[in-house]
Amino acid sequence: MKARGLSLWLLCLGMVVGALAGLPALPAHAQAPGADTGCITQIPAGSHQRVALIVANSAYDQGWQPLESPQADRRALVAALARIGFATMELCNADRPTMRAALGEFARHAAAAEVAVVYFAGHGVEWHGTGYVAPLGTGLGESLADPPSTMLAVTELHAALAGARVPILLVDACRVEAAALSNAQAGSIANAAAFADFAGAVGFAAAYGHPAFDSAPPTYALSPYAQSLVEFMPVRGLTLPDFFAAVRADVVRRTAIYVNGPQEPWALHRGNDAYYFSPPDVLETASPALAASGLSPLRIDLQDLESGKEFQLATRLLADEGLPLIHARADGGEALAQYLLSYMLRFGVGVEADQERSDHYLQLAAAGGLAAAQTILGFQNQQYAQDQAREAAGQELLQRAASQDFGRAHYFLGDIARAAEDGDAYSAFLLADRGGADLDHGFRLLEGIAETGDESAEAWLCELAMIHARRAMAELACRNAADAGYAGAQAHMASLRASGAADNDAGDWELAHWQARGRRTIYFELDRFQPRGLNQQIVLDGLLAELARRPWSTIVIEGHTDQLPTREYSLGLGSRMAGSVSRFLEQAGISTQRMVVASCGSSRPVNNSFGIAPFNRRVEVTVVWGAAETDRDQALPPVCAAQ
Question: What's the pTM value of the predicted model, to 2 decimals?
Protein backbone atom coordinates (compact mmCIF):
# COMPACT_ATOMS: atom_id res chain seq x y z
CA MET A 1 0.00 0.00 0.00
CA LYS A 2 1.10 3.60 -0.29
CA ALA A 3 2.82 4.98 2.75
CA ARG A 4 0.62 7.46 4.57
CA GLY A 5 2.13 10.49 6.23
CA LEU A 6 4.76 10.79 3.47
CA SER A 7 4.43 12.66 0.19
CA LEU A 8 7.37 11.63 -1.98
CA TRP A 9 8.13 12.58 -5.58
CA LEU A 10 10.42 10.06 -7.23
CA LEU A 11 12.31 11.47 -10.16
CA CYS A 12 12.63 8.79 -12.80
CA LEU A 13 11.62 9.51 -16.34
CA GLY A 14 9.48 12.27 -14.88
CA MET A 15 12.19 14.89 -15.07
CA VAL A 16 11.27 18.45 -15.87
CA VAL A 17 14.79 19.42 -16.77
CA GLY A 18 16.28 22.49 -15.15
CA ALA A 19 19.92 22.78 -14.16
CA LEU A 20 22.20 19.76 -14.46
CA ALA A 21 24.74 20.88 -11.88
CA GLY A 22 25.35 18.36 -9.14
CA LEU A 23 23.71 15.49 -11.03
CA PRO A 24 24.45 12.34 -8.97
CA ALA A 25 25.57 9.13 -10.58
CA LEU A 26 22.74 6.78 -11.47
CA PRO A 27 22.83 3.24 -10.11
CA ALA A 28 24.18 0.72 -12.57
CA HIS A 29 22.45 -2.51 -13.55
CA ALA A 30 24.10 -5.31 -15.43
CA GLN A 31 22.71 -5.96 -18.88
CA ALA A 32 20.45 -9.01 -18.94
CA PRO A 33 22.17 -12.18 -20.13
CA GLY A 34 21.67 -12.71 -23.82
CA ALA A 35 20.22 -9.24 -24.35
CA ASP A 36 19.86 -8.18 -27.98
CA THR A 37 22.37 -5.55 -29.08
CA GLY A 38 20.19 -4.37 -31.96
CA CYS A 39 17.35 -5.86 -33.98
CA ILE A 40 14.58 -5.04 -36.38
CA THR A 41 11.97 -7.35 -37.84
CA GLN A 42 9.38 -6.35 -40.41
CA ILE A 43 5.67 -7.11 -40.58
CA PRO A 44 5.15 -9.92 -43.10
CA ALA A 45 3.86 -8.98 -46.51
CA GLY A 46 0.11 -9.02 -47.01
CA SER A 47 -2.96 -7.40 -45.52
CA HIS A 48 -3.20 -7.39 -41.71
CA GLN A 49 -6.10 -6.06 -39.66
CA ARG A 50 -4.13 -6.19 -36.39
CA VAL A 51 -0.60 -4.81 -36.37
CA ALA A 52 1.87 -3.85 -33.64
CA LEU A 53 5.26 -2.16 -33.30
CA ILE A 54 7.24 -3.25 -30.24
CA VAL A 55 10.22 -1.03 -29.38
CA ALA A 56 12.61 -2.04 -26.58
CA ASN A 57 15.71 -0.06 -25.63
CA SER A 58 17.89 -1.47 -22.87
CA ALA A 59 21.62 -1.21 -23.71
CA TYR A 60 21.91 2.40 -22.59
CA ASP A 61 25.33 3.92 -21.85
CA GLN A 62 26.98 7.36 -21.74
CA GLY A 63 25.47 8.11 -18.34
CA TRP A 64 22.09 6.43 -18.92
CA GLN A 65 21.28 3.50 -16.66
CA PRO A 66 21.19 0.18 -18.54
CA LEU A 67 17.92 -1.71 -18.11
CA GLU A 68 17.41 -5.39 -17.53
CA SER A 69 13.93 -6.28 -18.69
CA PRO A 70 12.97 -4.46 -21.95
CA GLN A 71 14.17 -7.24 -24.27
CA ALA A 72 12.33 -9.91 -22.29
CA ASP A 73 9.31 -7.58 -22.29
CA ARG A 74 9.56 -7.26 -26.08
CA ARG A 75 9.68 -11.00 -26.67
CA ALA A 76 6.77 -11.63 -24.30
CA LEU A 77 4.62 -8.91 -25.92
CA VAL A 78 5.33 -10.23 -29.41
CA ALA A 79 4.33 -13.77 -28.37
CA ALA A 80 1.16 -12.60 -26.59
CA LEU A 81 0.06 -10.44 -29.53
CA ALA A 82 0.77 -13.22 -32.02
CA ARG A 83 -1.57 -15.52 -30.08
CA ILE A 84 -4.45 -13.08 -30.60
CA GLY A 85 -3.81 -12.45 -34.29
CA PHE A 86 -1.39 -9.51 -34.44
CA ALA A 87 1.36 -9.18 -37.02
CA THR A 88 4.29 -7.51 -35.27
CA MET A 89 7.30 -5.38 -36.14
CA GLU A 90 10.16 -5.40 -33.62
CA LEU A 91 12.85 -2.83 -32.90
CA CYS A 92 15.44 -2.95 -30.15
CA ASN A 93 18.33 -0.81 -28.97
CA ALA A 94 17.80 1.73 -31.73
CA ASP A 95 19.14 5.23 -32.19
CA ARG A 96 16.92 8.21 -33.04
CA PRO A 97 17.09 7.97 -36.89
CA THR A 98 16.36 4.24 -36.78
CA MET A 99 13.38 4.74 -34.48
CA ARG A 100 11.97 7.46 -36.70
CA ALA A 101 12.38 5.34 -39.83
CA ALA A 102 10.63 2.40 -38.13
CA LEU A 103 7.74 4.60 -37.02
CA GLY A 104 7.32 5.87 -40.59
CA GLU A 105 7.30 2.33 -41.95
CA PHE A 106 4.84 1.15 -39.30
CA ALA A 107 2.50 4.08 -39.99
CA ARG A 108 1.85 2.65 -43.47
CA HIS A 109 0.76 -0.66 -41.97
CA ALA A 110 -1.35 1.06 -39.32
CA ALA A 111 -3.20 3.12 -41.92
CA ALA A 112 -4.47 -0.09 -43.54
CA ALA A 113 -5.32 -1.87 -40.27
CA GLU A 114 -8.32 -1.98 -37.99
CA VAL A 115 -6.23 -2.09 -34.81
CA ALA A 116 -2.68 -0.83 -34.33
CA VAL A 117 -0.53 -0.97 -31.19
CA VAL A 118 2.78 0.76 -30.42
CA TYR A 119 4.61 -0.36 -27.26
CA PHE A 120 7.79 1.29 -25.99
CA ALA A 121 10.03 0.02 -23.19
CA GLY A 122 12.99 2.10 -22.06
CA HIS A 123 13.88 5.47 -20.57
CA GLY A 124 12.08 8.75 -21.01
CA VAL A 125 11.77 12.26 -19.62
CA GLU A 126 9.28 15.10 -19.47
CA TRP A 127 10.42 18.51 -20.67
CA HIS A 128 8.19 21.59 -20.68
CA GLY A 129 5.06 19.46 -20.41
CA THR A 130 5.92 17.08 -23.26
CA GLY A 131 6.99 13.47 -22.78
CA TYR A 132 10.01 12.11 -24.63
CA VAL A 133 11.35 8.57 -24.98
CA ALA A 134 15.07 7.92 -25.07
CA PRO A 135 16.81 6.31 -28.06
CA LEU A 136 20.34 5.00 -27.82
CA GLY A 137 23.38 6.86 -29.08
CA THR A 138 23.18 10.14 -27.12
CA GLY A 139 24.68 10.81 -23.70
CA LEU A 140 22.53 11.59 -20.69
CA GLY A 141 23.75 15.16 -20.29
CA GLU A 142 23.25 16.00 -23.97
CA SER A 143 19.82 14.39 -23.99
CA LEU A 144 18.58 16.27 -20.93
CA ALA A 145 19.96 19.57 -22.19
CA ASP A 146 17.82 19.43 -25.35
CA PRO A 147 15.25 16.60 -25.44
CA PRO A 148 13.44 17.86 -28.59
CA SER A 149 16.65 17.52 -30.61
CA THR A 150 17.98 14.28 -29.15
CA MET A 151 14.93 12.21 -28.19
CA LEU A 152 11.50 11.33 -29.61
CA ALA A 153 8.31 12.96 -28.36
CA VAL A 154 5.61 10.53 -27.27
CA THR A 155 3.35 12.34 -29.72
CA GLU A 156 5.53 10.94 -32.53
CA LEU A 157 4.77 7.42 -31.34
CA HIS A 158 1.08 8.21 -31.32
CA ALA A 159 1.23 9.81 -34.77
CA ALA A 160 2.32 6.48 -36.23
CA LEU A 161 -1.07 5.07 -35.19
CA ALA A 162 -3.17 7.80 -36.78
CA GLY A 163 -4.63 5.77 -39.64
CA ALA A 164 -5.94 2.85 -37.57
CA ARG A 165 -9.57 2.67 -36.47
CA VAL A 166 -8.45 1.55 -32.98
CA PRO A 167 -5.07 3.14 -32.11
CA ILE A 168 -3.44 1.96 -28.86
CA LEU A 169 -0.20 3.40 -27.44
CA LEU A 170 1.47 1.66 -24.49
CA VAL A 171 4.40 3.45 -22.80
CA ASP A 172 6.39 1.30 -20.36
CA ALA A 173 9.04 3.86 -19.55
CA CYS A 174 10.16 5.54 -16.32
CA ARG A 175 12.58 2.81 -15.34
CA VAL A 176 14.99 4.61 -12.97
CA GLU A 177 14.05 3.45 -9.49
CA ALA A 178 14.48 6.16 -6.85
CA ALA A 179 17.31 8.05 -8.57
CA ALA A 180 17.30 11.71 -7.53
CA LEU A 181 18.28 14.61 -9.77
CA SER A 182 19.57 17.74 -8.02
CA ASN A 183 17.95 21.01 -9.08
CA ALA A 184 15.45 19.16 -11.27
CA GLN A 185 11.72 19.15 -10.75
CA ALA A 186 9.42 16.14 -10.62
CA GLY A 187 6.94 15.42 -13.33
CA SER A 188 6.20 12.46 -15.56
CA ILE A 189 6.10 11.42 -19.16
CA ALA A 190 2.49 10.54 -18.37
CA ASN A 191 1.19 14.12 -18.35
CA ALA A 192 -2.47 14.01 -19.37
CA ALA A 193 -2.44 17.56 -20.73
CA ALA A 194 -0.25 16.43 -23.64
CA PHE A 195 -2.88 13.89 -24.71
CA ALA A 196 -6.02 15.99 -24.40
CA ASP A 197 -6.87 15.73 -28.10
CA PHE A 198 -5.64 12.20 -28.78
CA ALA A 199 -7.98 9.61 -30.20
CA GLY A 200 -7.91 5.97 -29.20
CA ALA A 201 -6.17 4.70 -26.07
CA VAL A 202 -2.94 5.72 -24.38
CA GLY A 203 -1.64 3.64 -21.47
CA PHE A 204 1.24 4.46 -19.14
CA ALA A 205 3.14 2.17 -16.82
CA ALA A 206 3.09 4.58 -13.88
CA ALA A 207 1.17 7.49 -12.42
CA TYR A 208 2.28 11.08 -12.84
CA GLY A 209 5.55 11.72 -11.01
CA HIS A 210 6.14 8.10 -9.97
CA PRO A 211 8.54 5.42 -11.23
CA ALA A 212 7.88 2.18 -13.02
CA PHE A 213 9.90 -0.76 -11.77
CA ASP A 214 12.23 -2.46 -14.20
CA SER A 215 11.23 -5.71 -12.54
CA ALA A 216 9.29 -6.51 -9.38
CA PRO A 217 9.97 -8.76 -7.63
CA PRO A 218 13.61 -8.61 -8.82
CA THR A 219 13.40 -12.29 -9.73
CA TYR A 220 10.76 -11.52 -12.39
CA ALA A 221 12.02 -11.47 -15.96
CA LEU A 222 9.49 -8.84 -17.07
CA SER A 223 8.52 -5.40 -15.87
CA PRO A 224 5.28 -5.45 -13.83
CA TYR A 225 3.44 -3.53 -16.57
CA ALA A 226 4.59 -5.88 -19.34
CA GLN A 227 3.77 -8.91 -17.20
CA SER A 228 0.20 -7.72 -16.69
CA LEU A 229 -0.23 -6.71 -20.33
CA VAL A 230 0.73 -10.17 -21.59
CA GLU A 231 -1.48 -11.87 -18.99
CA PHE A 232 -4.64 -9.88 -19.75
CA MET A 233 -4.43 -9.46 -23.53
CA PRO A 234 -5.57 -13.08 -24.08
CA VAL A 235 -8.33 -12.89 -21.43
CA ARG A 236 -11.60 -13.02 -23.27
CA GLY A 237 -14.35 -10.48 -22.85
CA LEU A 238 -12.47 -7.45 -21.50
CA THR A 239 -13.43 -4.20 -23.21
CA LEU A 240 -10.62 -1.71 -23.65
CA PRO A 241 -11.53 0.22 -20.44
CA ASP A 242 -11.85 -3.08 -18.54
CA PHE A 243 -8.51 -4.27 -19.94
CA PHE A 244 -6.70 -1.17 -18.70
CA ALA A 245 -8.50 -1.34 -15.34
CA ALA A 246 -7.49 -5.00 -14.92
CA VAL A 247 -3.86 -4.24 -15.83
CA ARG A 248 -3.76 -1.36 -13.34
CA ALA A 249 -5.21 -3.45 -10.51
CA ASP A 250 -2.79 -6.28 -11.22
CA VAL A 251 0.30 -4.04 -11.29
CA VAL A 252 -0.78 -2.42 -8.02
CA ARG A 253 -1.20 -5.88 -6.50
CA ARG A 254 2.27 -6.99 -7.67
CA THR A 255 4.10 -3.90 -6.44
CA ALA A 256 2.22 -2.84 -3.29
CA ILE A 257 4.70 -4.42 -0.87
CA TYR A 258 7.80 -2.73 -2.30
CA VAL A 259 9.50 0.43 -1.13
CA ASN A 260 8.16 3.35 -3.20
CA GLY A 261 5.30 1.14 -4.35
CA PRO A 262 2.77 0.54 -5.51
CA GLN A 263 3.31 1.29 -9.16
CA GLU A 264 0.02 2.63 -10.53
CA PRO A 265 -0.54 2.56 -14.31
CA TRP A 266 -3.13 4.85 -15.83
CA ALA A 267 -4.77 5.23 -19.21
CA LEU A 268 -6.83 7.55 -21.37
CA HIS A 269 -9.31 6.00 -23.77
CA ARG A 270 -11.61 7.94 -26.07
CA GLY A 271 -13.97 5.99 -28.28
CA ASN A 272 -13.63 2.30 -29.17
CA ASP A 273 -14.69 1.36 -25.63
CA ALA A 274 -16.36 -1.77 -27.00
CA TYR A 275 -13.12 -3.09 -28.55
CA TYR A 276 -11.80 -6.42 -27.24
CA PHE A 277 -8.30 -7.83 -27.62
CA SER A 278 -10.12 -11.16 -27.23
CA PRO A 279 -13.93 -11.33 -27.64
CA PRO A 280 -16.20 -12.56 -24.82
CA ASP A 281 -17.22 -16.15 -24.27
CA VAL A 282 -20.78 -17.41 -24.12
CA LEU A 283 -21.44 -19.30 -20.90
CA GLU A 284 -22.11 -22.88 -21.91
CA THR A 285 -23.19 -25.78 -19.73
CA ALA A 286 -20.32 -26.58 -17.38
CA SER A 287 -18.33 -29.68 -18.22
CA PRO A 288 -19.24 -32.55 -15.84
CA ALA A 289 -15.57 -33.60 -15.87
CA LEU A 290 -14.49 -30.15 -14.71
CA ALA A 291 -17.25 -29.94 -12.12
CA ALA A 292 -16.11 -33.23 -10.60
CA SER A 293 -12.39 -32.48 -10.74
CA GLY A 294 -12.02 -31.67 -7.03
CA LEU A 295 -10.69 -28.14 -7.37
CA SER A 296 -9.19 -26.55 -4.26
CA PRO A 297 -11.49 -23.87 -2.85
CA LEU A 298 -10.79 -20.26 -3.79
CA ARG A 299 -8.93 -18.33 -1.12
CA ILE A 300 -9.72 -14.62 -1.25
CA ASP A 301 -9.54 -11.96 1.43
CA LEU A 302 -13.20 -11.19 2.13
CA GLN A 303 -12.20 -7.61 2.95
CA ASP A 304 -11.77 -7.22 -0.81
CA LEU A 305 -15.50 -7.89 -1.18
CA GLU A 306 -16.20 -5.40 1.60
CA SER A 307 -14.17 -2.85 -0.40
CA GLY A 308 -16.08 -3.54 -3.63
CA LYS A 309 -13.20 -5.20 -5.46
CA GLU A 310 -15.31 -7.70 -7.38
CA PHE A 311 -13.86 -6.50 -10.69
CA GLN A 312 -10.27 -7.01 -9.59
CA LEU A 313 -11.05 -10.44 -8.16
CA ALA A 314 -13.02 -11.55 -11.22
CA THR A 315 -10.43 -10.43 -13.78
CA ARG A 316 -7.53 -11.95 -11.82
CA LEU A 317 -9.46 -15.23 -11.63
CA LEU A 318 -10.17 -15.08 -15.37
CA ALA A 319 -6.44 -14.68 -16.05
CA ASP A 320 -5.48 -17.47 -13.64
CA GLU A 321 -8.18 -20.05 -14.38
CA GLY A 322 -10.40 -19.00 -17.26
CA LEU A 323 -14.17 -19.00 -17.52
CA PRO A 324 -14.71 -22.80 -17.77
CA LEU A 325 -13.07 -23.44 -14.38
CA ILE A 326 -14.90 -20.55 -12.73
CA HIS A 327 -18.15 -21.95 -14.12
CA ALA A 328 -17.27 -25.41 -12.89
CA ARG A 329 -16.59 -24.09 -9.41
CA ALA A 330 -19.92 -22.26 -9.38
CA ASP A 331 -21.90 -25.28 -10.54
CA GLY A 332 -19.98 -27.36 -8.03
CA GLY A 333 -21.49 -25.29 -5.22
CA GLU A 334 -18.63 -22.90 -4.34
CA ALA A 335 -20.37 -19.76 -3.09
CA LEU A 336 -17.50 -17.36 -3.82
CA ALA A 337 -17.27 -18.59 -7.41
CA GLN A 338 -21.05 -18.26 -7.75
CA TYR A 339 -20.85 -14.67 -6.54
CA LEU A 340 -18.01 -13.69 -8.91
CA LEU A 341 -19.68 -15.46 -11.84
CA SER A 342 -22.89 -13.57 -11.04
CA TYR A 343 -20.89 -10.33 -11.14
CA MET A 344 -19.31 -11.26 -14.48
CA LEU A 345 -22.68 -12.12 -16.01
CA ARG A 346 -24.27 -8.95 -14.66
CA PHE A 347 -21.68 -6.60 -16.15
CA GLY A 348 -20.38 -8.60 -19.12
CA VAL A 349 -16.86 -9.07 -17.73
CA GLY A 350 -15.21 -12.00 -19.51
CA VAL A 351 -18.54 -13.33 -20.73
CA GLU A 352 -21.63 -12.10 -22.54
CA ALA A 353 -23.96 -10.33 -20.10
CA ASP A 354 -26.97 -12.36 -18.96
CA GLN A 355 -29.11 -10.79 -16.23
CA GLU A 356 -31.24 -13.88 -15.60
CA ARG A 357 -28.27 -16.18 -15.05
CA SER A 358 -26.56 -13.51 -12.95
CA ASP A 359 -29.58 -13.44 -10.63
CA HIS A 360 -29.51 -17.24 -10.46
CA TYR A 361 -25.91 -17.43 -9.28
CA LEU A 362 -26.35 -14.51 -6.86
CA GLN A 363 -29.22 -16.36 -5.18
CA LEU A 364 -27.11 -19.53 -4.96
CA ALA A 365 -24.22 -17.59 -3.37
CA ALA A 366 -26.55 -16.01 -0.82
CA ALA A 367 -28.06 -19.40 0.01
CA GLY A 368 -24.52 -20.67 0.47
CA GLY A 369 -23.95 -18.14 3.24
CA LEU A 370 -21.68 -15.62 1.49
CA ALA A 371 -22.17 -12.31 3.30
CA ALA A 372 -21.48 -10.18 0.21
CA ALA A 373 -24.18 -11.98 -1.78
CA GLN A 374 -26.63 -11.83 1.12
CA THR A 375 -26.05 -8.09 1.40
CA ILE A 376 -26.70 -7.38 -2.27
CA LEU A 377 -29.73 -9.64 -2.52
CA GLY A 378 -31.07 -8.43 0.81
CA PHE A 379 -30.77 -4.79 -0.23
CA GLN A 380 -32.50 -5.45 -3.55
CA ASN A 381 -35.36 -7.25 -1.86
CA GLN A 382 -35.71 -4.62 0.84
CA GLN A 383 -35.38 -1.55 -1.39
CA TYR A 384 -37.36 -2.63 -4.43
CA ALA A 385 -39.81 -5.13 -2.96
CA GLN A 386 -43.38 -5.09 -4.24
CA ASP A 387 -44.75 -6.90 -1.20
CA GLN A 388 -44.09 -7.16 2.54
CA ALA A 389 -42.98 -10.79 2.38
CA ARG A 390 -40.11 -9.99 0.02
CA GLU A 391 -39.15 -6.95 2.08
CA ALA A 392 -39.03 -9.12 5.21
CA ALA A 393 -36.90 -11.71 3.39
CA GLY A 394 -34.50 -8.94 2.43
CA GLN A 395 -34.27 -7.77 6.02
CA GLU A 396 -33.44 -11.31 7.15
CA LEU A 397 -30.66 -11.64 4.56
CA LEU A 398 -29.13 -8.35 5.68
CA GLN A 399 -29.20 -9.46 9.29
CA ARG A 400 -27.44 -12.72 8.37
CA ALA A 401 -24.71 -10.76 6.57
CA ALA A 402 -24.42 -8.32 9.46
CA SER A 403 -23.92 -11.23 11.86
CA GLN A 404 -20.73 -11.95 9.87
CA ASP A 405 -19.54 -8.36 10.49
CA PHE A 406 -20.02 -7.37 6.86
CA GLY A 407 -19.97 -3.58 7.07
CA ARG A 408 -22.19 -2.73 4.13
CA ALA A 409 -24.97 -4.90 5.57
CA HIS A 410 -24.95 -2.76 8.72
CA TYR A 411 -25.15 0.32 6.49
CA PHE A 412 -28.29 -0.97 4.75
CA LEU A 413 -29.76 -1.80 8.14
CA GLY A 414 -29.24 1.82 9.16
CA ASP A 415 -26.36 1.30 11.61
CA ILE A 416 -23.76 3.60 10.03
CA ALA A 417 -21.48 3.63 13.09
CA ARG A 418 -21.23 -0.18 13.14
CA ALA A 419 -20.70 -0.27 9.37
CA ALA A 420 -17.85 2.20 9.71
CA GLU A 421 -16.26 0.20 12.52
CA ASP A 422 -16.47 -2.92 10.32
CA GLY A 423 -14.47 -1.22 7.57
CA ASP A 424 -17.01 0.38 5.23
CA ALA A 425 -15.29 3.55 3.99
CA TYR A 426 -18.47 5.26 2.79
CA SER A 427 -20.08 4.75 6.19
CA ALA A 428 -17.01 6.23 7.87
CA PHE A 429 -17.40 9.32 5.69
CA LEU A 430 -21.10 9.60 6.57
CA LEU A 431 -20.25 9.19 10.24
CA ALA A 432 -17.80 12.09 10.06
CA ASP A 433 -20.38 14.10 8.12
CA ARG A 434 -22.56 14.13 11.24
CA GLY A 435 -20.02 16.46 12.85
CA GLY A 436 -19.33 16.87 16.55
CA ALA A 437 -17.37 14.04 18.16
CA ASP A 438 -18.11 11.82 15.17
CA LEU A 439 -16.00 14.07 12.91
CA ASP A 440 -12.60 13.19 14.34
CA HIS A 441 -13.66 9.58 14.87
CA GLY A 442 -14.67 9.33 11.22
CA PHE A 443 -11.34 10.80 10.16
CA ARG A 444 -9.47 8.21 12.23
CA LEU A 445 -11.56 5.36 10.86
CA LEU A 446 -10.99 6.46 7.25
CA GLU A 447 -7.25 6.73 7.81
CA GLY A 448 -7.23 3.23 9.26
CA ILE A 449 -9.22 1.80 6.34
CA ALA A 450 -6.92 3.58 3.88
CA GLU A 451 -3.94 1.91 5.56
CA THR A 452 -5.35 -1.46 4.44
CA GLY A 453 -4.98 -0.39 0.80
CA ASP A 454 -8.64 0.54 0.26
CA GLU A 455 -8.43 3.24 -2.42
CA SER A 456 -12.04 4.27 -1.90
CA ALA A 457 -11.10 5.27 1.65
CA GLU A 458 -8.42 7.57 0.23
CA ALA A 459 -11.07 9.17 -2.00
CA TRP A 460 -13.53 9.74 0.87
CA LEU A 461 -10.69 11.00 3.07
CA CYS A 462 -9.77 13.45 0.32
CA GLU A 463 -13.34 14.78 0.19
CA LEU A 464 -13.60 15.02 3.97
CA ALA A 465 -10.26 16.81 4.30
CA MET A 466 -11.22 19.30 1.59
CA ILE A 467 -14.59 20.01 3.22
CA HIS A 468 -12.97 20.67 6.60
CA ALA A 469 -9.89 22.49 5.24
CA ARG A 470 -7.35 20.00 6.62
CA ARG A 471 -4.85 20.88 3.94
CA ALA A 472 -1.94 18.60 4.82
CA MET A 473 -4.24 15.58 4.93
CA ALA A 474 -5.95 16.69 1.73
CA GLU A 475 -2.64 16.89 -0.13
CA LEU A 476 -1.77 13.30 0.70
CA ALA A 477 -5.21 11.68 0.46
CA CYS A 478 -6.20 13.55 -2.71
CA ARG A 479 -2.92 12.68 -4.41
CA ASN A 480 -3.30 9.00 -3.54
CA ALA A 481 -6.93 8.98 -4.72
CA ALA A 482 -6.06 10.96 -7.84
CA ASP A 483 -3.34 8.47 -8.74
CA ALA A 484 -5.96 5.74 -8.28
CA GLY A 485 -8.15 7.41 -10.92
CA TYR A 486 -10.86 9.20 -8.93
CA ALA A 487 -11.85 12.18 -11.08
CA GLY A 488 -13.14 14.20 -8.14
CA ALA A 489 -9.81 13.83 -6.32
CA GLN A 490 -8.00 14.80 -9.52
CA ALA A 491 -10.05 18.00 -9.67
CA HIS A 492 -9.17 18.68 -6.03
CA MET A 493 -5.48 18.18 -6.88
CA ALA A 494 -5.81 20.82 -9.59
CA SER A 495 -7.39 23.14 -7.02
CA LEU A 496 -4.68 22.47 -4.46
CA ARG A 497 -1.96 22.93 -7.06
CA ALA A 498 -3.46 26.19 -8.28
CA SER A 499 -3.70 27.54 -4.74
CA GLY A 500 -0.14 26.50 -3.92
CA ALA A 501 -1.23 24.07 -1.21
CA ALA A 502 0.03 20.97 -2.99
CA ASP A 503 3.70 20.16 -3.56
CA ASN A 504 5.03 23.09 -5.53
CA ASP A 505 8.18 21.50 -6.94
CA ALA A 506 6.70 20.32 -10.22
CA GLY A 507 6.08 23.60 -12.05
CA ASP A 508 2.80 24.28 -13.81
CA TRP A 509 2.95 20.94 -15.64
CA GLU A 510 1.43 19.12 -12.70
CA LEU A 511 -1.44 21.61 -12.62
CA ALA A 512 -2.06 21.03 -16.32
CA HIS A 513 -2.01 17.26 -15.78
CA TRP A 514 -4.69 17.31 -13.09
CA GLN A 515 -6.80 19.86 -14.94
CA ALA A 516 -6.80 17.55 -17.97
CA ARG A 517 -7.75 14.45 -15.98
CA GLY A 518 -9.98 15.78 -13.23
CA ARG A 519 -13.66 16.61 -13.22
CA ARG A 520 -15.54 18.49 -10.53
CA THR A 521 -17.63 15.78 -8.90
CA ILE A 522 -20.40 16.05 -6.31
CA TYR A 523 -21.38 12.82 -4.55
CA PHE A 524 -24.93 12.26 -3.30
CA GLU A 525 -26.63 10.35 -0.55
CA LEU A 526 -28.51 7.17 -1.34
CA ASP A 527 -31.59 7.55 -3.55
CA ARG A 528 -33.13 10.69 -2.08
CA PHE A 529 -36.04 12.35 -3.84
CA GLN A 530 -34.62 15.65 -2.61
CA PRO A 531 -30.97 14.72 -3.03
CA ARG A 532 -28.24 16.34 -0.97
CA GLY A 533 -24.74 16.65 -2.34
CA LEU A 534 -22.33 15.43 0.30
CA ASN A 535 -19.48 17.67 -0.87
CA GLN A 536 -21.52 20.15 -2.89
CA GLN A 537 -20.49 23.30 -1.02
CA ILE A 538 -16.72 22.85 -1.35
CA VAL A 539 -16.91 21.84 -5.02
CA LEU A 540 -19.27 24.61 -6.11
CA ASP A 541 -17.59 27.32 -4.05
CA GLY A 542 -14.43 26.66 -6.02
CA LEU A 543 -16.39 26.65 -9.27
CA LEU A 544 -18.08 29.97 -8.50
CA ALA A 545 -14.74 31.61 -7.73
CA GLU A 546 -13.39 30.49 -11.09
CA LEU A 547 -16.53 31.54 -12.95
CA ALA A 548 -16.24 35.02 -11.46
CA ARG A 549 -12.77 35.34 -12.95
CA ARG A 550 -13.73 33.94 -16.36
CA PRO A 551 -17.36 34.76 -17.15
CA TRP A 552 -17.48 33.55 -20.77
CA SER A 553 -18.23 29.90 -20.35
CA THR A 554 -20.87 27.20 -20.47
CA ILE A 555 -21.41 24.85 -17.53
CA VAL A 556 -22.32 21.23 -18.33
CA ILE A 557 -24.05 19.47 -15.43
CA GLU A 558 -24.50 15.69 -15.73
CA GLY A 559 -26.34 13.50 -13.21
CA HIS A 560 -25.20 9.87 -12.81
CA THR A 561 -26.70 7.11 -10.67
CA ASP A 562 -26.14 3.62 -9.30
CA GLN A 563 -27.31 0.54 -11.13
CA LEU A 564 -31.02 0.96 -10.36
CA PRO A 565 -33.98 -1.30 -11.26
CA THR A 566 -35.18 0.55 -14.37
CA ARG A 567 -33.78 3.02 -16.87
CA GLU A 568 -36.63 5.45 -16.16
CA TYR A 569 -35.91 5.35 -12.42
CA SER A 570 -32.21 6.03 -13.02
CA LEU A 571 -32.82 8.88 -15.46
CA GLY A 572 -35.32 10.49 -13.10
CA LEU A 573 -32.95 10.35 -10.12
CA GLY A 574 -30.06 11.66 -12.23
CA SER A 575 -32.25 14.56 -13.36
CA ARG A 576 -33.16 15.47 -9.77
CA MET A 577 -29.51 15.37 -8.72
CA ALA A 578 -28.36 17.54 -11.65
CA GLY A 579 -31.28 19.88 -11.02
CA SER A 580 -30.23 20.44 -7.41
CA VAL A 581 -26.80 21.59 -8.62
CA SER A 582 -28.22 23.87 -11.31
CA ARG A 583 -30.55 25.48 -8.74
CA PHE A 584 -27.61 26.10 -6.40
CA LEU A 585 -25.73 27.85 -9.21
CA GLU A 586 -28.81 29.83 -10.24
CA GLN A 587 -29.30 31.03 -6.67
CA ALA A 588 -25.65 32.12 -6.70
CA GLY A 589 -26.33 34.34 -9.71
CA ILE A 590 -25.31 32.08 -12.60
CA SER A 591 -27.72 32.39 -15.54
CA THR A 592 -29.50 29.21 -16.56
CA GLN A 593 -28.71 30.21 -20.16
CA ARG A 594 -25.12 29.24 -19.44
CA MET A 595 -26.05 25.75 -18.22
CA VAL A 596 -26.58 22.48 -20.03
CA VAL A 597 -28.28 20.05 -17.62
CA ALA A 598 -28.47 16.34 -18.43
CA SER A 599 -29.18 12.98 -16.82
CA CYS A 600 -27.06 10.00 -17.83
CA GLY A 601 -28.83 7.61 -15.47
CA SER A 602 -26.65 4.56 -14.85
CA SER A 603 -25.11 4.51 -18.35
CA ARG A 604 -21.66 5.81 -17.31
CA PRO A 605 -20.62 4.17 -14.04
CA VAL A 606 -17.29 4.99 -12.45
CA ASN A 607 -17.08 1.31 -11.63
CA ASN A 608 -19.35 -1.65 -12.12
CA SER A 609 -20.47 -2.75 -8.70
CA PHE A 610 -23.37 -4.75 -7.34
CA GLY A 611 -26.13 -2.78 -5.69
CA ILE A 612 -25.10 0.62 -4.36
CA ALA A 613 -21.78 2.13 -5.43
CA PRO A 614 -21.47 5.61 -3.89
CA PHE A 615 -18.94 6.83 -6.45
CA ASN A 616 -21.42 6.13 -9.23
CA ARG A 617 -24.04 8.37 -7.58
CA ARG A 618 -22.69 11.74 -8.60
CA VAL A 619 -23.06 14.96 -10.57
CA GLU A 620 -20.12 15.91 -12.79
CA VAL A 621 -19.64 19.57 -13.67
CA THR A 622 -17.59 20.57 -16.71
CA VAL A 623 -16.82 24.14 -17.67
CA VAL A 624 -16.24 24.91 -21.36
CA TRP A 625 -14.32 28.17 -21.44
CA GLY A 626 -15.02 30.67 -24.17
CA ALA A 627 -18.12 28.80 -25.36
CA ALA A 628 -20.48 31.66 -26.13
CA GLU A 629 -24.10 30.81 -26.77
CA THR A 630 -23.69 31.16 -30.55
CA ASP A 631 -20.98 28.53 -30.83
CA ARG A 632 -21.33 26.39 -27.73
CA ASP A 633 -22.90 23.43 -29.54
CA GLN A 634 -19.66 23.06 -31.48
CA ALA A 635 -17.45 23.62 -28.41
CA LEU A 636 -19.23 21.35 -25.92
CA PRO A 637 -18.07 17.82 -25.17
CA PRO A 638 -20.57 15.00 -25.79
CA VAL A 639 -23.25 14.95 -23.10
CA CYS A 640 -26.21 12.76 -22.27
CA ALA A 641 -29.69 13.84 -23.29
CA ALA A 642 -30.19 17.43 -22.11
CA GLN A 643 -33.13 18.05 -19.77
Answer: 0.85
